[in-house]
What we know:
This protein is α/β, with parallel strands linked by helices. The protein is built from 45 helices and 16 strands.
Amino acid sequence: MKRCELRFGLLGPPVLYDRGGDGPVIRPVGSPKARLLLTALLLEAGRTVSVDALKEALWGDTRPASAHASLHNHVTRLRRLLDDPSRLRAVPPGYRLRVEDGELDIHLFDAHLAAARAAHARRDWRGTLRACAAALSLWRGDPLAGVPAELGGYALTQRLAEARLLLLEWRYDAELALADGRLDALLPELAALAAEHPLREAYHRQLMLALHRDGRRAEALAVHRDLRRRLVEELGVEPGPAVREAHLEVLREAEPGTGTPAPRAAQLPPPRPAQLPPPPAHITGRTPLAGALRDALTASGPAVTVLTGMAGIGKSALALHVAHGLTDRFPDGQLYVNLHGATPGMLPLTPAQALAALLRDVGADPRSIPEHPDAAAALLRSVLAPTRTLLVLDDAANAAQVRPLLPAGPGCAVIVTSRSSLAALDGARRFPLAPLSDEDSAALLRAASGRDDGIDAAHPLVELTGRLPLALRVVAARLAARRALTPDLLAGQLSATDRRLHHLEYDDLSVRRSLAVAHDALAASDREADRDAALVLRRIGALDLPEYGAPLLAHLGGTGLRRAEDALDRLVDVALLEETALGRYVPHDLVRDFARELAAADDGDKVAESALGWYAALAEHTLTALVEPGLDQDDRRRPTPSQPSEHAEQVEDSRPFEGPEAAFAWGDAELENIVALAERHAESPNYRIAARLCTLLRLIFPYVHRSGRVAEMEVLGRAALRNTRRLADEAAEAYALGDLAGVHFLSGRHTEALALNDRALEIWERLGVLSWMRRCLNNRGLLLEGLGRYEESGLALRQSLAYSRQLNDPYGEAVTHQHLGNLYEHTDPRAAIEQHRLSLAIGEMIGNVLIQLYARCNIGYAHLTLGEPRAAARHFEESLRDLVGQGDWHGESQTRLGLVRSLRLLGRTERAERECAELLRRADARADRYTGGLARHQHGLLLSAAGRTEEARAAWRAALDALTGTDEKAVVAELTSLLADTGGPPTAGHFASA
Length: 994
């Protein structure tokens, strides 16, 4: 047998085709595993199928330990069976089988099916016969025979089987219309089909007509009688219009004097419902989504699409807009049902109610509609199977409500709208809707209000409506109704009150009522998860944070973590929350307003107090995960007078983090919430709230400092200072002063940092706390050195060193040696290196990684001062390599900055530019203007050396803007000189650990 271009077969057992002398020759695939592998690849023809999916296809849940190797062997064997082994390629994360157009029988079958449908619709009977014969010739038996149902998919095999039955119907319609003398040959075939499908009316109608036209009138009437009896007894319905027309033809008497039956009357066309409500008058901003929806609805096979999103997002408007544009593609009708899944004041339709409505709409006698939903669903599928009908199922509550209403015919399509994603609806394509853009929101306001007086994308009304189409329509209606009401005045009304939702109601349009439907249904439900969801929404309204996670809400609701997660899933499912990242949830702005209204009756102070206690306990776990055990950790954990007595118990009851990475991840997720709480409650008159906030801010600061979140550090530092003064807690105030001094140091504002640090030192001296006196003196020396006051710096650092030795605090001693090294660098860089080596030795002795990294980096800066960039680069690269995973932004930023300077001086500009770009990216992500300014200074020097003068000047201007107002006088002077075109050498900076 000569091998030839291959063709694949799934319309029967999976096979390969070879080309023989008389056409394609079937070549069975002998190995069961090879058949399964071939099937899995053909079902995704031309697309990559993952290794996991192929293992699932071959072994299901019982895959052997050697599954990976076995899969490779099966792939190799299958390649040998192909005409071209390169068809089957390994493409991460799996394998891809190349299948050209026309090589897979299902694709050919679908093409002939479409041709047959078109020919049948235009009554081209010979074209219908040709297309039907071509499609049916490909049929070798049940599709995917011998393949497990879970691999082949019930939906695909059902679609193909239904398509074959339709092809047979169309073929016999053509045969009867042409009447080419084959009636005696058709009769056995039609009789067999009618017996095989006793409730399928089309074959019985065709059998009746064939018998009648063959002169066997009594047998034709018997077929009708038997069919009617079965339909009434089993489904409770009368035969449809087509069968009734055929019955009338049989009942007519023969024409006088001819002895032949009278010509059959023209068959009445089936009812063509056109039930779509009017399309929306104005729709903006949905063009790409509408195009994707149209493509999905007009693809081959039955298409089910789901438009999802929150209340008022415009799901129904988009559905009707697209549906009206497709009426020509669905000539047999457009059906519309409002399922009232979330209609204020109405219960959702049951599937039985919806089925009865649809069956009446397609012409069924109301008295004959089956009572049982399964029978009614079967009847609806039978009626719609041969048609090209579009269904719009608006406002669905859940998948169970929709599933019985779906047609199976390949010519039908469905648009479902729902607040839920209807994830349990198999085979549906989902199109989530988001709020409109600023520009589209403004366009909708202008179009719907008929007003163009200053409504642009930046108008406050856009923000105040949350870009929600329903809210925008309410505002537009208000503007249209009252010409004297200007957009600016209405924006003032919306922003000047906490009752924004009150102004977002007009006539029958109401954002509040739309949101309340979902909440009220949850609150009244018998399901625990629903009631928990209603409670969680009230807690969200009481706390009002930027975003939420399940652990916090489990604590606030007094439920376990599992129940909180289930409650959040329910809120997402009814579109009251959006999951923006795994485990993080955010409400829309208008949902926030609604939640605040729900929470108005709750005790907001108690909720805030509970949340702050939870955050404080986790903040202490963050501290112990990030700060190595020793005096620094002990001092930071030591309670101040205002710390609540129950804090220690809350820490004990909560789970510690598994390590620094988990602690950083928690802090990164929750920092925005902590900042919001600090800003809101910094001056709270409620002592219990203030005390918990004070504890939280003291314990969370090491995380914020290490992560380099400069903007957040300043907000938290200032909030802590106001808070501690209201509490009259001196120790806590000293913490806040020292922490805020650290913020100013990291921002290059050494003078302000020194003043704050000295005030903290006065308090610690008054309280007699030597360890904190040591730290303040150490930081004083660091700041004075940065300000050029070297003699005072040396005095403070020597005092700090004496306290470290008195306290037996090697960590403090190591830090002070680093700062002494920075001081000596101005006069004797070799002596500076010795100080840093002392610090490095202590760090190695106590096993403190950060001390060692700081020391190496500072040695690098000393080498830069000595004019030894090669030695400097070596130390910077070693430090940077070991900093990975430490999460210390100050150390990382200063190391990267030193490395950029070293590489630039060595002429390794390409690497220097890469490192500088990475430093800028990380600094900008943290809103660290000071580090960004220093990096842009270096970036400008690199650009200037490459001859890119204008870009260099732009970088220097940005650097000067960032550094003006800081104490980085030397760099500011150099930038001023460079921008005046006088040039200037790079300056040397210092690296220090606070």
